Amino acid sequence: GGTRKVLPVRLLSQVLFRVVTFALNAFTLRYLSRELIGVVNVRLTLLYSTVVFLAREAFRRACLSGSAKRNWTKTINLLWLTVPLGVFWSLILGLVWLHLLEVPDPSVVPHYQAGVVAFGLSAIIELLGEPLWVLAQAHLFVRLKVIAESLSIVSKCILTVTLVILYPHWGLYIFSLAQLLYVSVLVMCYVIYFVMFLGSPEATKKSFPVARVKALLPSFTFVNWKEARLTWSFFKQSFLKQILTEGERYVMTFLNVLNFGDQGVYDIVNNLGSLVARFIFLPIEESFYVFFAKVLERGKTVKDQKQDDVAMAANVLELLLKLVLLIGLTITVFGYAYSQLALDIYGGSMLSSGTGPDLLRCYSLYVLFLAVNGITECFTSALMCKEEVDRYNFVMLALSFIFLCISYFLTHWYGSVGFILANCFNMGIRIAHSTHYIHHFFRESSHRPLRGLLPSPALLLVYIISAVVTAFSEVLFCCDKGWMARLIHVSTGALCLAATLVTMFFSETKLVHFVRSQFVSRYLKKGT
To answer: What residues have CB less than 8 Å from 118, skipping those under 6 apart?
Structure first.
């Protein structure tokens, strides 16, 4: 039950962070250069996230595994080691960022050195709250996490907007101060909560394992050696995980494949495109992963499963694949003709001229790959046995390295669009792996859920016509011919979308019934 409570909260905080970043970028683009935004969102954010990740990730994984009942004094002592580790990584990486990487032109991006120092310092400040964060997470203090993260994000935004309006010439000072405020508010929320909570009647009632504030400070008691050994084993993995998670940013930062302006535009378009994945696909994947894991037994062949359950799972998988395929196709078809207009409205001519529209068009295609991959991997990860998961992790590792190499070469040839093409290639191979697993699993049954990846011929025809009509409309009416021409372009798209939805309604009746029963009725129940 606790885990079910934490998952939506984690999702909520991720979505909040992305929405705020989305809104903040739209605002700052009108006041600051895209080079400045590129340095902040790619270069400096990468420094901060790398220091924080290397200093704490292994400790978090080790100290949150197992039960919450343990010797917390020893665990807290172990967690305080994240601070000196953070200081070490801040100094080492700070020197790399200052002396080994290309320094931006001071006339375009002023105060770069101050930015590096501030973002390194902000990582250390955040690590000061690590023992409190782990203690709160282990005891499922869900509301505290949401309030702390929301307050810190909102305060960061208010300060950024104020400084951008009043002192746009401050350059990186603006984002440095905002970042320091963000981590300070985050840590202070946890400190204030625990100062008030410890020793209170509520803490006594819950039999909270830490009685006094003094017990949260480092002491001369030894650490938990079992957790320390576990931390070391996780630490060896954390290097690799960080490189693979932030692969694109490392390629941009260390290999100079893009200039700072293109990095800024790429990061903004990436944020813009990933909102769709976060809002639409991730909730579907998370809820149906639980469904598949409950209905089918992990590691068993299709013949050894209950046949009624197999039939239900196959039907749901087929309809889910059809649903995400049609959402992805709709975004791909209409995204092509409306990328330039969307970017012009969102960020002005700075985004809608240059590589921005091509990037968003490619990202619209990438969304289709993301949609299908999310569901196929959701099904396979719910069914794989331990040996298959280990084998799959090895495949993923190899794929990630191939992705980094392909990213490097494609960006040399096609600029920032190369990153998205590399992502499409990566997702394509993952989809091939998952669909092969699904085909093999259902081979000895009469069910063929992969048919969900085939839309009806009538709908396919409407998609093709819509793509051609909207592409012509963009050439004729968008985006420098005034608001009336833009309105005609939008109306053309609206008519094509309406025709697509009507065709979908009549040609995909099983899917319409599935969406009504699974999503619409559930939403209406929540509302009443």
So the answer is: 172, 176, 177, 179, 180
